[in-house]
């Protein structure tokens, strides 16, 4: 990454017909960064990419790439002059062209063969140049689509849920591979997805989108541990949200006083991620008795649900992740916490003071 703004989007507004879709969206992607826009279905992710690519008009706002204006609602650079690559969900290869012809499509004749060879090597498809798309697996087809998008050396690559149609194992393998390929190529890229694991595995920076706006953009680590509100907390994974009063830089909760990630000085709700809840057989200082209500083995760990003692000011359900052998469903344990609690805005306290599941 260069620290220079590659793509800059300011106060972008857009609609489909009379329905507003983007409502004042701001987003900055540094040159050379792999960014991800994470949001639920229908929040406007594809519309955003299509505006940047030049397939849909902005109504208001500004989109610039390396300082070059692309669209401000009045002036629009045509898609073919933007130097932006676009990989849609299904790859959209030309079925009648070979892999090499797909990758070389639109490249200047001079140097085309060399560039196609280079791209085949980059995406690990040496030896498949003469095949047609129907002779490739889904993962290989997506790699060809990526090679085709990178071949003209775009200043920015847009990936619209390119792994969605693949099975889970291939999706995991391919997204890691694609991220590595893009880093090798020094590309600036934006991936849109509603899959949090994809976002966390892929991106240097994640922008969480809701209702046509970016609500928070930061590193994956910062978003996971310091979300701006309950909805961002929920977008990044499961969270236990506990009522809390703040005093002397601590959050006073049913688990006693907990250190805070930051001192807002306001009462409200604090978040603990599931790995911050620990189970013990014996009670300890500030532990809370709870009954195990569900347990799910996930290979790398167990996800355990609890009903805490109803006399405490706690949600009806808490969630922990543990590597240790879990207690049986129905057994009584004691819960304690580990690490700092993260304060969330007090708004909607009663609605949010519950466990949220991704
Ligand atoms: N061509 C269209 N005409 C009218 N409305 C549309 C059109 N395309 C999208 N929309 C609407 O705009 C909103 C945003 O759609 P968009 O495809 O950008 O969302 P998304 O976040 O990419 O969703 P998904 O993750 O399901 O692909 C939705 O309410 C959708 O129904």
TrEMBL record:
Coiled-coil spans in chain: none
Chain ranges of the ABC transporter domain: 7-236
Keyword list, A-Z: ATP-binding, Cell inner membrane, Cell membrane, Ion transport, Iron, Iron transport, Membrane, Nucleotide-binding, Translocase, Transport
Alphabetical list of PANTHER family matching this protein: PUTRESCINE TRANSPORT ATP-BINDING PROTEIN POTG, SPERMIDINE/PUTRESCINE IMPORT ATP-BINDING PROTEIN POTA
EC number: 7.6.2.9
UniProt GO molecular function: ABC-type ferric iron transporter activity; ABC-type quaternary ammonium compound transporting activity; ATP binding; ATP hydrolysis activity
The protein's name in its UniProt record: ABC-type quaternary amine transporter
Alphabetical list of SUPFAM superfamilies matching this protein: MOP-like, P-loop containing nucleoside triphosphate hydrolases
One annotated Gene Ontology cellular component of this protein: ATP-binding cassette (ABC) transporter complex
Species of the source: Streptomyces roseochromogenus subsp. oscitans DS 12.976
Highest rank taxon of the organism: Bacteria
Annotated InterPro entries: AAA+_ATPase (IPR003593), ABC_SmlMolc_Importer (IPR050093), ABC_transporter-like_ATP-bd (IPR003439), ABC_transporter-like_CS (IPR017871), ABC_transpr_FbpC (IPR015853), Mo/tungstate-bd_C_term_dom (IPR008995), P-loop_NTPase (IPR027417), Transp-assoc_OB_typ2 (IPR013611)
Pfam families tied to this protein: ABC_tran, TOBE_2
Region Disordered: start-end pairs: 326-358
